[in-house]
Amino acid sequence: MVLLALGIVLVLIATVAGQVRLNLWQGSFYDALERKDIQAFMQQIVVFLAIISVLLTLAVGQTWLQEMIKVRLREWMTHDLLDEWLMGNRAYWMQFAGEIGINPDQRMQEDARHLTELSASLGIGFLQASLLLVSFLGVLWVLSEQVMFSLNGHSFSIPGYMVWCALAFATAGSWLSWWVGRPLIQLNYDRYSAEADLRFAMVRDNENAEGIALRDGEKDERKLFDGTIDRLIGVMCRLANGLARLTWVTSGYGWLALVAPILVAAPGYFGGSLSFGGLMMVVGAFFQVQQSLRWYVDNFAGIADWRATLSRIVNFRDALLKVDEMHRNVPRIAMSASASGNLVLDDVTLYLPNGQAALDAPHIEVAPGKHVLIVGGSGSGKTALVLAFAGLWPWGTGTIRMPAQESVLFLRERPYLPLGTLRSVMGYPAPPKPIDDAMICGALKQVGLEYLDASLDREERWDKTLALDEQQRLAFAHLLIYAPKWVFLDDALSALDEKQREELMAVFYGPLSGTTVISTSRMPEQDHFYNRTFNLRRLPGGERLPVQSKDSRNAAPDAIAAQAPVQA
């Protein structure tokens, strides 16, 4: 990246030097035309071809370097955002951060792409404009001496006359552009937010297309889209109006720039102190100076777009860095490693969005190899409890002491199946020891999925290809391969019938006989698999987990209070 930046600076300096030489060439060329000197004219054509050959080569090099800078900036920014997003539990906790945590995919993909491209284009354009300005200010200052004025029979020149005219012209245009175009910054921010909402709604409908079709809900879904689309269209209309107003300034400025240098240099030309070639040099230098100074005018819309995109990226990254402190004023469950190797819970209470929950025993200690069932009705906080064991739901009171993390595995009602081949799914995350096809096929057979043996190298959306009961069985096959010492099951067999559940749970009497099982369920079990049963009950009153509205835009993550209980 440093070499690319150094390269673009050197190329820009060489390009500016070429532009200055081209401006000097204009004086000789137009003087030859004025004298009708054919030989000098032809010589200047040869010089012109040489100059533009160099400038063309530099332009190609600048284009390549600029595009490569965009690529490297995009690579760095994407990796940086992903590193922060996938650090610890941030990706999960960002769901509780309100609007800033919605559509992280767009912020890390589309916004990052847009910001890096704008940053490279605007940054290089600004550097080039600055170099041209410095170079041609000197040229224009010297040429100003040839613009003579007459007053009461006396001729005089104004030091830097053309420079002051160019500065005044560009300053007026820049100020007017800022005054007219400043609302575009917020409008661009609102537009990207509305685009993200529309994209999220479309992705959500695509993910739930089957459920929508079964309910014949297409018309209702279409109506739900209207509000999102109307908001986007409203912002785009305001943005179009703002751009139209800004175009009055930018286009008008551009047209006036064609005659402004001739008008201000006319006294010298008509007074005879400035030749036609000199006039063209003045016009060319004035054009370069005012082009450099009007960079802000020409790029105000782009700058507004860049600031809006930068704001989205900065806000998102700041939220990632602060998400660990989110709800810092809310009590948290004390998590620690268990010295005895047992699972221990002391006075654990969960803070939920709709209340609190706690187990019916204040002190619970589970030794290795035991089977424990936690029973709770719908909405009682069973999932929050399992998340608390994993350290993902820290909000509440009490203490949890967990066994070694590497010996624990969590199975949810809908297992996470990563993209890729079935073999890669079975090996996710990377196991402590290599697994071979025989291990995978043996595990698949034990859970009744032997018909998937031939699909180990097939890439699929397995979460879409397999039914929920097949996904749950696949999770158990994964369990057999990893053979953890502790297993937490959160309604992990809900899609199976009683016979299928018994067949799968039998592995804890066979190959996983020493594994501790902590399971949640809506109903008590009728068999004797579990050694102990605890009830998870809702508590009346008390603090609860505040949920921030999606419409609370730009709120700081640490302003959101959340609370949740932990138990085992």
Task: Spell out the blueprint of helices and strands.
Elements: H1 2-35, H2 38-85, H3 90-93, H4 104-143, E1 148-151, E2 154-157, H5 161-181, H6 183-207, H7 209-214, H8 218-270, H9 276-293, H10 295-298, H11 300-322, E3 334-337, E4 343-352, E5 355-359, E6 363-366, E7 371-375, H12 382-389, E8 396-402, E9 408-411, E10 420-421, H13 422-426, H14 437-446, E11 459-460, H15 462-465, H16 468-482, E12 486-490, H17 498-505, E13 516-521, E14 532-539
Parallel strand pairs: 3-8, 7-13, 7-14, 9-12, 12-13
Antiparallel strand pairs: 1-2, 4-5, 4-6, 4-8, 5-14, 10-11
Helix pairs in contact: 1-2, 1-4, 1-9, 2-4, 4-9, 4-11, 5-8, 5-9, 6-8, 6-11, 8-9, 14-16
Overview features:
ten-stranded mixed sheet; 14 strands; single chain; alpha/beta; 568 residues
Describe this structure in words.
By secondary structure, the protein is an alpha/beta fold. Helices cover 57% and strands 12% of the residues. It has 17 helices and 14 strands. It has helices spanning 2-35, 38-85, 90-93, 104-143, 161-181, 183-207, 209-214, 218-270, 276-293, 295-298, 300-322, 382-389, 422-426, 437-446, 462-465, 468-482, 498-505, and strands at 148-151, 154-157, 334-337, 343-352, 355-359, 363-366, 371-375, 396-402, 408-411, 420-421, 459-460, 486-490, 516-521, 532-539. The strands form three sheets. Strands 3, 4, 5, 6, 7, 8, 9, 12, 13 and 14 form a ten-stranded mixed sheet that branches. Helix 2 (38-85) packs antiparallel against helix 4 and helix 14 packs across helix 16. The radius of gyration is 35 Å and the shape is elongated. The model is unreliable at 549-568 (pLDDT under 50).
